[in-house]
Amino acid sequence: MYKLRELHEPEYTEEDLNFLLASGGICRCFSLAEILLATNNFDEECLIGKGGSAKVYKGVIDDGATTVAIKRLSYISKQAVGSMFRTEIEMLSKFRHSHLVSLVGYCHEWHEMILVFEYISQGTLSDHLHQSFVKGYDTLSWIQRLKICIGAAQGLDYLHTGTSTSQRVIHRDVKSTNILLDGNLEAKIADFGISKIVATNQGCTYVSTAVRGTFGYMDPSYFTTGRLTRKSDVYAFGVVLFEVLSGRRAVNLSRDDEQLGLAGWAQNCIKQGRMNEIIDSNLKMQISKKSLLAFVKIASQCLNAQPSCRPTIAEVVVILEFSLALQGNSDATPIKGAIYTGYSGRCSTAVEVVYGKNHVKPFEINRWRATFSRKVCQILSTSIRSSSG
């Protein structure tokens, strides 16, 4: 039997009421009775995930017509939970993208703060990488992993650059458990509870804020300075890329000091010429050398100690797509392409064409107004030179 925490209605502030009123027209407002019916009174058999701040239940709404994921925030404090609750509603009511999880609605009755999302059937990227046997998932192939990374990167790119002309979003908690996979293994970024919306006209490239995030994925520069930038998400995504390549967790307390943190260990392996040690044993017979080198180079750049030296997420998307195209070509098929560099020394136009079997073009960039960093262009041009016949 479900029991309410209090026997009286909570006292909403005027700010709370204005917020709920404003949100009412954007997404659906569920009653607590509807949520209880959907989850069979929060039955443990419906529980599909949990963390320090929430439990997630699989539920059905609309007389069983729609399956949803119901996130019940833990009552740590009204201020802390309320902030996460508001942020997720604000983010996902404003921003829609095929690689972001969709918000269906919310419930704010008594002291409950509950979010209702589309149901993503195949769990998290972390589940597939680290618990595939337990969860009953097939091991992800290299091509599947590349496509998942590309989708997640496209979702982040939308947050960083495509939400509007006046606002940008920093996720602040990019990690493999916050990348969900649907029935087609398409990536969906989730959990926006600590995200930040940044105005593009604020005059600086960072936000000074309390340090939040997950150990192992957190940007060292952000941790030491409190300055949050989009490049903090890039760093975290770099950790995810090495997690995907290695099959190792971002942090593993059972390993020795050298291998405890994935980011530091992977960087040391690359510096010492031990790159082969990073590759998941399930992938070693699958990855082409060309695809691997492009992938590792961009992942390494994401982990650069200097945020300004990291690529943008848009550049990461380009190289991951290139890595996928390289993987798709047979080693005997030559790769042809060209880089056009502007007078500034930066590439104002980049055109890359990879010819596969029968001259199919699996990858092509023709962005006349695109600007890529010199390091990113070096990855592209080096890959072409080393692969040309």
Automatic annotation (TrEMBL):
Q: Which CDD domains match?
A: STKc_IRAK
Listed InterPro entries: ANXUR1/2-like, Kinase-like_dom_sf, Prot_kinase_dom, Protein_kinase_ATP_BS, Ser-Thr/Tyr_kinase_cat_dom, Ser/Thr_kinase_AS
Q: Where does ATP bind?
A: K71
Q: Does the keyword Lyase apply?
A: no
| Name the record gives this protein | Protein kinase domain-containing protein
Subcellular location(s): the record lists: Membrane
Superkingdom, natural source: Eukaryota
The record's annotation in Gene3D superfamilies points to:
Phosphorylase Kinase, domain 1, Transferase(Phosphotransferase) domain 1
Q: How does it sit in the membrane?
A: Single-pass membrane protein
Task: Provide the species name.
Answer: Daucus carota subsp. sativus (Carrot)
The similarity annotation says:
Belongs to the protein kinase superfamily.
Pfam assignment, any one: PK_Tyr_Ser-Thr
Keywords attached to this Swiss-Prot or TrEMBL record, sorted alphabetically, are: ATP-binding, Kinase, Membrane, Nucleotide-binding, Phosphoprotein, Receptor, Serine/threonine-protein kinase, Transferase, Transmembrane, Transmembrane helix
